[in-house]
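Students often ask why inverse folding is considered easier than folding. One informal answer: many sequences map to the same fold, so there is more than one right answer. In these notes we will look at a single instance of the problem. The structure comes first.
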């Protein structure tokens, strides 16, 4: 490099100290991120191993079920046994009751109030 390209910057002690703190803080944050990424990769490997085991067990169960279906006698069930008749009045009463229960469910108003307060604080900070 030529002397014409050199640039010198003078820092006072407090600026240099603050710069050093910020640099160390950045390095610390990067190390934490790296640690979290390694932990994530470890968990992801465990998840994939577990999924593979589950997949194999499902395949085994599928074979067992297929064998059972082949070997067990087939049963013919009439539709009357499967779907019992329910009176219309009973159905409508149950539906009305469920509608009333749904209306009675209320949300936490205190939580809504806290959310509104946080939104107001965010708006004031944006100004």
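Output (designed amino acids):
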């Amino acid at each position: 490099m030529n002397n014409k390209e050199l640039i010198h910057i003078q820092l006072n002690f407090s600026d240099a100290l603050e710069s050093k703190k910020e640099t160390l803080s950045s390095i610390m944050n990067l190390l934490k991120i790296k640690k979290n990424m390694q932990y994530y990769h470890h968990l992801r490997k465990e998840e994939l191993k577990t999924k593979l085991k589950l997949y194999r067990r499902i395949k085994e169960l599928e074979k067992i079920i297929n064998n059972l279906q082949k070997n067990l006698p087939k049963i013919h069930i009439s539709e009357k046994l499967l779907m019992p008749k329910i009176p219309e009045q009973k159905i409508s009463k149950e539906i009305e009751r469920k509608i009333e229960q749904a209306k009675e469910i209320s949300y936490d108003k205190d939580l809504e109030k806290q959310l509104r307060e946080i939104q107001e604080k965010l708006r004031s900070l944006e100004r």
